[in-house]
Amino acid sequence: MAKAELMNVVEGEVQVVAFKLRKEEYGFNILNVKEIKGLTDITRVPFASDFIKGVINLRGSVLPVIDLKKRLGLQDMEYTDDTRIVVVREDDLEVGMIVDAVTGVITLNGEHIDAAKAVDNENSRFITGVGKVEEERLIILLNLEAIIGLQDEIK
Amino acid sequence: MDTNQYMEMFLEESREHLQSLNDGLLALENDPEEVSVVNDIFRNAHTIKGMSATMGFTKIAELTHDMENVFDLLRKEQMKVNPDIMDTLFKTIDSLEQMIESVGSGGPEDVVDITSFASKLSALASGKSISEAEPAPAPAAEAAPAAPAAGSSIEYSDTDKDVILEAANGGMHAYHIKVTLAAGCVLKSARTYMVMNSLDQVGEVVKSVPPAEDLEQEKFDQSFDVVVVTDSEMKPIEDTLLSISEVDTVEMTDAVEEIKQLEAPAAAAAPAEAAAPAASNVPATTAPTAPAAKSAAPPAKKPAADAKKLKGGQSVRVDIEKLDTLLNLMGELVINKVRLEQIGITHRLTELTETLEQMDRVTTDLQTVVMKVRMVPVGQVFNRFPRMVRDLAKELNKELNLTVEGEETELDRTVIDEIGDPIMHLLRNSLDHGLEHPDEREAKGKPRIGEVGLIARHEGNNVVIMVTDDGKGIDADVIRRKAVEKGMISQEEADSLDDADAVRLIFLPGFSTAEQITDVSGRGVGMDVVRSKIETLGGHVDVETKIDEGSVFKIKLPLTLAIIQALLVKVQEEMYAIPLGSIDSTINITQEDIKTVRNKEVIVLRGQIIPIIRLGDVLNVPRVNEKDNDDIFVVVVHIGERKAGIVVDNLIGQQEIVIKTLGKLLAGLKVISGATVLGDGRVAMILDVSALM
Q1: Rounded to an integer, what distance in angstroms lies between the CA atom of residue B639 and that of residue B579?
Q2: Residues of A with CB below 8 A from B682's CB?
Q3: Range of the domain at A56
Q4: ipTM of the complex
């Protein structure tokens, strides 16, 4: 089901915005991505969940920013010149995601996406599948809804 | 006629008139001798009748008409006010309200069986009437003027006649003008618009045949009729109209004469009916003079009122969403202005700074205007309470006098929409728990009639709404005992609370002291709901009480929810905004000034012991630099009577900030009530002072 959801209605293909978190490559469906911007000042929000890095000023409105590595249980890394904030949208909720680098927009053929069970660990609920491009390049497709996590663990 | 587009206007105006009726009746009940009130409510009823008839709601019109008959008798002092009459009238208004709300939501008109009211009302009317004839049935009366209309191309409704005849009494002229456009006129609607426009300039158009809507859509042949009330003579109007191109002929007749001619044969045929409603119960007034007698009673104010309604050019109805957008844009503007100011200061650009000062004035004015546009008088909420209090007092067998003050105090629209329920709850509470029964009051040596007050007023940047009563007050010991019984606090905690704090326990969830649970209040879901509602509006509620002297519930609300004055403070590298409304003062102390009482840090300020809150610790601010200076900045804040000192590292300054929500993802955080974008583009959190304390 997750797989079907990922597809663009046209010809079983899905376009993703690919980015790096440490050594691995991940992707969000391009339809969820609103913009990509460089790192700006992030204001810490007291009492917020630990994976929420803070808020930024996005052209006058206040946008929460999630530390994606922390959310996925990956080790922290210093910010570099390549660090980006990917602004995504799910329903009417907009959130920024901090990623180590954006690698590009990639078109994945539905046949080359394996369902989430292929990667089986505690984070599997954040993952909808793994896409394969070229020979050795794997892109882990993320479940935005679970990452934003409106259904759990806010409080 | 398609009346749908007028529905909203009809509903709104009907509600207003019903409200006035309610108010008027309450005034009349309090002072039965004050007959002048009846004149006003008679007019309200009359307008409702007219409007509902136009909209095709005959049942509403009928019921209003019956009610009008009773008012008429009261007005002419042929009947005295008594509780029976008042109750019937109140119930009639309730039914009208139900009917109007029902048609408003697309339902049927006859949700209420009006026959019982109708017969009661006519019984009231006829019972006191000296007439030998039975009261004229309403529909017949409406139909009467229609019958002889054949001679003229225009029919006058009761309302039209009233307006015209009253205008005539007031020394004005009413003309029936028949305008014929040139054959082959292409832009008929444009020509009619010009005609109407020039008529509007000399007087008021009270009627047009066909109606204005059809005129606009060119649903007429070559000619149309209008009736105008004006103080101008016939000739200038005729000249003006003829000067409009493609207007062929203009025929003018005196509308008053026309009506009299129409009335005469009708009156001769059926005297009682033609003269209804005024004359039906007053046989002494002869039929031909009936219209005059009818219009003589209310002073000539009516045409003015009607004229205003017809013209309607003085105000515009705007969708609240558009106002919200305007406000958002305003917010952006303020942010950018502050940003520019900072650039000017950093780069020492005097020219820029000077220009910005000018701009600052303009934006401040603009902001005030935008804010004002959103402001609504609290009277809009208050006006439904007198009636509710009256009914409730009857139900509870209590006697009281409700004083309402400061209805003109204005609040932001969003606050107004939410404030009704909490106030209602406080009023109910005062009536149910606060006020004693009359006998009990007498035994205590108080007047039998209790005093309940609903007062709104400005207090700095806030609006304060108070619900007061002179009832039995709240016994702090009872509250302590209950709170311990319910396991909300321990005995020690209860003992350590002073009386004022003990009384505040009533705002905790699940607290209700009512010995008996009534359906009025006291289901244990009262005060905490009031408090949380007020707090979501950025306000707070407090209570002051004295045994046997009464209680005062005080709601303090911000004037607006969007832009506030705040003090910016710094803790380590983080910036926070504290709303100025809750700040008392800022002081500069040293470490030695901080004392410890029961393991809590306090300071003594002007003889008062104030607990201090170290913001950095509460908010877990990461330590970047250890403090080396001995100076400690304390922002003294207050919520109601309670004070606290917030320790910060630095005071940055006072600034106007635009409140932004943190969104769904960060909703419900403690201590943080929102965020704001500072002049340098960074985001700062706004502190919720009440949650800090």
Answers
A1: 12
A2: 41, 43, 57
A3: 2-148
A4: 0.85
